[in-house]
Amino acid sequence: MSASVSSPAGEASRHFISNGSRRMGFIEFIALMAWLMALPALTIDIMLPALPNIAAEFSLAVANDRQLMITIYMLGFALGQLFYGPVSDRYGRKPMLYLGLFLYLLATLAVVFAGDYFWVLVARCAQGLAAAAPRILGIAIVRDAAAGRGMSRIMSFIMMVFIVVPIFAPLMGSALMQWWDWRYIFWFMMLSATVALLWTAIRLPETRFLQQAQSPNANTDPQVIPFGQALKTVFTTPQTVGYSLAIGFVFGCVLAYVGSAQQIFGELYELGDQFVLAFGAVASVMALSSITNIRLVQRLGMRRISHVALLTFTVLAVIYGLCGFPAKPPIAWFYAYLSVSFYALTLCMPNFNALAMEPMGKTAGLGSAVIGFYTTVAGALFGWGFGQAYDGSVRPLVLGFFLMGAGALISVLITERGRFAREPEQMLEQN
What we know:
Layout: E1 3-5, E2 15-19, E3 22-25, H1 26-45, H2 51-57, H3 68-91, H4 93-112, H5 117-145, H6 148-162, H7 164-179, H8 183-203, H9 210-214, H10 227-235, H11 238-268, H12 275-300, H13 302-322, H14 331-357, H15 364-388, H16 395-415, H17 424-430
Antiparallel strand pairs: 1-2, 2-3
Helix pairs in contact: 1-5, 1-6, 1-7, 1-8, 3-4, 3-5, 3-15, 4-5, 4-8, 5-15, 6-12, 6-14, 7-12, 11-12, 11-14, 11-15, 11-16, 12-13, 12-14, 13-14, 13-16
């Protein structure tokens, strides 16, 4: 078996990854990875406009119970990662992608035909279990192809592409509901998963052993790390553990916002169905942040960018409190706060992911699974907690931003032994 990975420089003009007869250029690789990793986000964002309709159809007594459509999905998503990642280390990325995408199609169909809210939630949990495959295996595939700042740069490209999901998905969900009921949103999810399945089958090379094939000392038979040894590596690597904790807090901020967005913009600020425009406007700022990371990460380094961004995010919540902690600030004022906050968060996410995965070269599947499981569970629980605390004001969300930002900052400082915004080479020069 022959396999190779080219440098990202000049990637558009030559094959980025190849394996036998399968070859894929950098742009197509980014597009497919973005499609795969965006599918779980699409499964949340496109249905946000439908939450009031779903609550009304199933006669939910508590308005905040509609958020369970997101929380139960994320818990299933977390559990699924523990299966797909480790198994893909032994049997390859593509077979697990096929399995996950096929199960996603079945679970989505079950949502469409569910007769009451309990079975909707059961199907949503199964949908989350299946959606874990494209998300976690997408990260593992990227780690197969790159590491360190190169991985961060690729993840930023991917984030820039799939960031259009929260911009356009709620708009598309709203448009579908203008013509049909909320179940057609799930038919659209099935179409997206079908495209991902066919694209993967036809174009994607198997990447599991790309790094080993590039090594001059590579054996003819690919080596599989024993599960126990691989698990020990994940849990005894301080950089992986510390940055995983930080990602959990950061992801909690994102899910707390996603879970509350429809109520905040649609009801508190009385935007109604137009809340999707405000939601998309915040997401567009995240796209700009991804571009910033792409341009600066190779020059400034992952730590310097992400640490300063995290400190900025946390301090912004403090400033909000010093301004009187208003329950309902003017919408322009609140939008400005959210925009700067999510600009900073988006600078954290790809860099924290790359830093956590950097030591996981030979165990990328298991490493991605464990990191993904923890960060998803933590994010879902943090997001659910602060989402359920919604009281008709923005205060629970801002308080959550401060507490989770502070938690992430403490995790980073402990991991880096008190050193802040300094890359390893800078540390060595000063010792």
